[in-house]
Structures are given as structure tokens and as C-alpha cells.
Amino acid sequence: MTSLIHPSDSATEKLTRTYRDHQRPLWQRALLNRDVAVWAALVAVFLYASATVPFFDRPITITYLLLDVAPILLIALPMTLVIITGEIDLSVASTVALASVSFGVLYDKGTPILLAAVAALLVGLVCGALNGFLVTALGLPSLAVTIGTLALYRGIAVGLLGTTAITDFPDTWTDWARGRIGDSDIPSIMIPFAVLAVLFIVLLHFTAFGRGVYAIGLNEGAARFSGIRVERTKLLLFVLTGVVSALAGIYYTLRYGSARGDNANGMEMQVIAAVLLGGVSIFGGRGALPGVIAGVLLIGAIGSALRLADQTADVINIVTGLLLVVAVVGSSVLGWVSSKRRRRGAPEPRSSTTPPGTPTPGTTKADTDVPVGEREREDR
């Protein structure tokens, strides 16, 4: 009967934990978080590389840095949402290659370039829909599914062109892909990226759909019980990832002026490393897009500095792999430390052997001797 009046131990612990999470001042919650830490690391790398690496501080270096990371920035937007739900898509680079080849082959066969681009986006949509169907309808793990489709899409792309490449694209399109905004050093591709970034940030952080994405990652069963359409949400996210990967494939083709089956080889690891480095948990339920954008730029800045320092591609791959390991291990360690803190600050549970009639905190012995119904009448 006393449970009708006094909250249970678990409820008290949840309330205490919730209030404790907001005990810090607003400025601490705004500034002392993972997103700010990644942006601070990015600034530190820029300052250090500008002081020690020749030509890194030149405007042309920033231009080429943004041109290089543009496909990764694009793909990282939907990939962030996929990983927050607790899933993953390893086929994005192969989707880039298949969209690139489809775009090139159709244009080479006489299709107007705009229609070829639309068809390439549809190819990406189909790739994402297949991934989503296998994961949501058949219940297969996304890791296994996308490892398989990684090989499937790459094999189709290589099979369509073999070792040849299509390079005869209109100068108007290739010049735009390599061009800049007016007289600035900012590449033109940053315009569509900025539009997509705003859309995805609003979708994830300011809509009920985004709250559902976090809920799925935190507890899929509870999210489904609360009315969130888990399968439909995941399917939509895989489709979005496929379409945006195809868009990155079109840009990749025009930027380098070449449609090949081996385009974007290994890019999936750069995307995932950047997303995890940006503060997204590989276990789902946590992360934010501003930190992911900083993570992409951080990996791009490190790679650019190493190239200017005459380091080989193997060294850059090693550094990217180390960053991926550090991101995963760091996220796990921080989660463990946070969990230990909460447990240390949680209220002591009441013993199950407490004799009946023993006062609980906030009550007196007299209160415990009054029947519940009579006490409620007195309160009224």
C-alpha cells in the first residue's frame, strides 16, 4: 500500500539521475561536450599544421581540402542517422561507384546528362532500398547485409566498365564541380552540402522523427512499444543514405572527370571513422551532426597535412584506422565513466528487510501508523 504514496526505488533513481544531468550550468552543458571537443581538436590541428607544414596555410590548400572531403561530408549526413539507430551501412562507397558508372554509361550512350544524373540517383535509391528491405523486412543484421552489398554493388560497377573509364563529360558540369563560389576559396559543392546539412540537422534535432531515431538507438523495443514505426524509419534512412551516396558519386565523377568501377574505393571507412570521431556512438542512441561535420573536416585536415608533408597513402590509411579505433574506444570509456558516476551518486536502495511501519525519508512514525485511506482523507 505504501507504494501508492511513496515512489519506488527505481523511480526515485531515475528522477534523481534526470535532475543530476541538469545540475550543471547551461554554459557548461553547451561548451563542455563532445561536439565542442572535436571542433577544438580541428582548430588545434589547423594551427599546428599551419605552423609546421609547408603551404598548409595557403587558401588553395583549404579549397582542395573541401573538394576532397565533399563526398565524405555528404555521405556522413545520412550515415549519422543510420548509426544512431544502431545500424550501419558499409556499402556507401560501392554505391558511389555504381552511381558513377551508371551516370557515365548512360551519358556515353547519348542520354542527356541531366537525365543520366537523375537515373544515377534512382540507382542509389534502389541500392539503399535493398539494404533497408533486407534489414527491416527479413530482420538480417545490417553489418552482414551491407558487407554483402558492398561486394555486390562494387562487382556490378566493375563489371559494367571493366578496366575502362568514361571521361568525356561537358566542361560546364566539370567546371562547376571543381569551381568556387564567386571570388572566394569555397568550392561550389559546399552550396548543396550546406542545404542538405541544414535539412538533416533540422530533421534529426528538431523534429519528432529525429527523436524517434534516438529512441530506436537507445531501446528499440521501447521505441516500438511507444508507437514509433521502427522498420519504416530504418528503411527510410537506408534509402536516404543510398540517394545521398549516389549524389556523391555524381559529384565524384564530375570532379575527377572520370567514371570508373573503382571510384571511391575505401571511402566507407573514412565516412564511418569521421562519424564516430564526431561523437556518434557505434552502439546507437547518441550523437549530433555538428560534431560529425567537425570529424570529417578533422580527418580531411590531417590527411591534407600528411600529403603536404610527403607521406604516402598507406600512412594516411594507418592514421585513419587509428582514429577509428580511438573513436570507438574513447566512446566506450566515456560511457563507462559516465555510468560509474551515475551509480556512485545514486541514492542507496532501501533494504528489502525493512520492518513494516519503519518511517521512510520524509515521513514520521505517526504517518506510518495511519491507514492509507484515512491519510488520503486527511490530505483532502
Give the structural class.
Answer: mainly alpha
Order of helices and strands: HHHHHHHHHHHHHHHHH
**What's the CATH first level?**
Mainly Alpha
> What's the tally of helices?
17
Overall mean pLDDT stands at: 84
Low-confidence stretches: 1-21, 362-380
The structural domain count equals: 1
CATH architecture: Orthogonal Bundle
Helix fraction by DSSP (H/I, runs of at least 4): over 70%
Q: Evaluate the radius of gyration.
A: 26 Å
Write down how many β-strands occur, each being a DSSP E stretch of 2 or more residues: 0
Fraction of residues in β-strands = under 5%
Distance from first to last alpha carbon: 18 Å
How would you sum up the major sheet? none
The shape is globular
Descriptive tags:
globular, mainly alpha, about 375 residues, about 70% helix, single chain, 17 helices, disordered N terminus, ABC transporter involved in vitamin B12 uptake, BtuC
In short:
It is built from 17 helices and no strands. With 380 residues, the chain is an all-alpha fold.
Question: Can you walk me through this structure?
Answer:
This protein is an all-alpha fold. It has one domain: ABC transporter involved in vitamin B12 uptake, BtuC, CATH 1.10.3470. It contains 17 helices and no strands. The longest helix has 33 residues, at 313-345. The radius of gyration is 26 Å and the shape is globular.
Please render the helix and strand layout as text.
Layout: H1 9-21, H2 26-31, H3 34-52, H4 59-84, H5 92-108, H6 113-136, H7 142-161, H8 171-178, H9 190-205, H10 208-218, H11 220-225, H12 230-256, H13 267-277, H14 289-308, H15 313-345, H16 365-369, H17 372-379
Helix pairs in contact: 3-14, 4-9, 4-10, 4-12, 4-13, 4-14, 5-6, 5-7, 5-12, 6-7, 6-12, 8-12, 9-10, 13-14, 13-15, 14-15
